[in-house]
Design goal:
Low-confidence stretches: 1-21
Strand order of the largest sheet: 1-2-3-4-5-6
Distance between the termini: 36 Å
Mean pLDDT: 79
CATH class of the largest domain: Alpha Beta
Number of domains: 2
Strand content: 25-35%
Radius of gyration: 20 Å
CATH topology of the largest domain: Heat Shock Protein 90
Structural class: alpha+beta
């Protein structure tokens, strides 16, 4: 093996969350790479880790940390999510990284005459992008491939209540009976905004099945202008388009809320959300 490097770097940054509180972020990044001719490994990660949030209960912070570790270091490397057992619920990124290293080790241990390429590519960037009274949200962007058959891009968003630590899902806010109409609205809007080719007509029969996970998994972000949804590859557009996102304005969203007052309240919260100001690292 010409080169196998494991680099782990951590730097502490501080950022304002609320007028009455403060969030301490630790930037955790690292990489595992190999350029050996029968093995290709190119893995890197960069996450903003919320180490402390003033005024937030420790158990609430732990829930948020669990979510970050699962989505960054566990879910991408587990074929059957139902097989995840309690010991896999980690509250520290340095321990959760064991799943990533196990995936790399698995490729190293594969036979060289295997029918699939001994290759692993994974890139993950996590940014805290919603910091406001009552809510903390982050966005994960990256790609993942095992076996050398092409990288698959992904985007995952999670919004947590800072009061309970609960992950906010669509059915907490939106009328489930109107999901079909909302999905049509999102798809029509994304199609007009995107030049990418749609999936071929012969795949349309499977589109309802493929797009069903678009709702009720919490993969949306609250922004000043409305809700932004992320459409995974092959759901509406061809795979080459990658992840496609579209913002649905508050006025268009309001008819889909369980209670229109929820929409107005979230709109006001989003309008007063504070942008995280990161201090320069020492």
């Amino acid at each position: 093996m010409k080169h196998l490097a494991i680099i782990a770097l951590c730097a502490v940054t501080a950022a304002r969350l609320l007028a009455a509180g403060e969030i301490t972020l630790r930037t955790c990044e690292g990489s595992v790479k190999s350029d050996f001719y029968t093995l290709g490994v190119d893995v890197e990660w960069n996450i903003e880790w919320p180490e402390e949030i003033t005024g937030v209960k420790p158990k609430v912070l732990k829930r948020i940390q669990y979510g970050i570790n699962l989505e960054t270091f566990v879910f991408p490397f587990v074929a059957d999510l139902d097989s995840i057992h309690p010991p896999a619920i980690y509250d520290r990124p340095d321990v959760a990284q064991k799943h990533l290293f196990e995936a790399v080790l698995g490729k190293i241990n594969e036979k060289e005459d295997s029918h699939t390429a001994r290759a692993l590519s994974y890139c993950c960037t996590l940014k805290i992008c919603l910091a406001t009274e009552g809510y903390l949200g982050y966005h994960i962007d990256g790609y993942h491939n095992e076996g050398g058959c092409g990288c698959h891009s992904f985007a995952q968003n999670s919004i947590f209540s800072l009061n309970s630590g609960k992950l906010i899902l669509e059915h907490d806010l939106l009328n489930t009976n109107k999901y079909t109409a909302l999905r049509t609205l999102i798809f029509d809007k994304a199609t007009k905004e995107t030049d990418a080719a749609l999936i071929p007509p012969e795949a349309y029969a499977y589109r309802d099945v493929m797009t069903k996970p678009l709702f009720d998994n919490g993969n949306f972000m609250i922004e000043t202008g409305g809700f932004r949804w992320y459409i995974p590859p092959y759901n509406l557009f061809c795979g080459a388009a990658g992840v496609v996102d579209t913002l649905v304005p508050w006025d268009d969203l309001k008819p889909f809320f369980i209670d229109p007052a929820y929409c107005d309240a979230l709109k006001n919260i989003a309008a007063t959300a504070r942008t995280i100001i990161r201090q320069k690292e020492d």
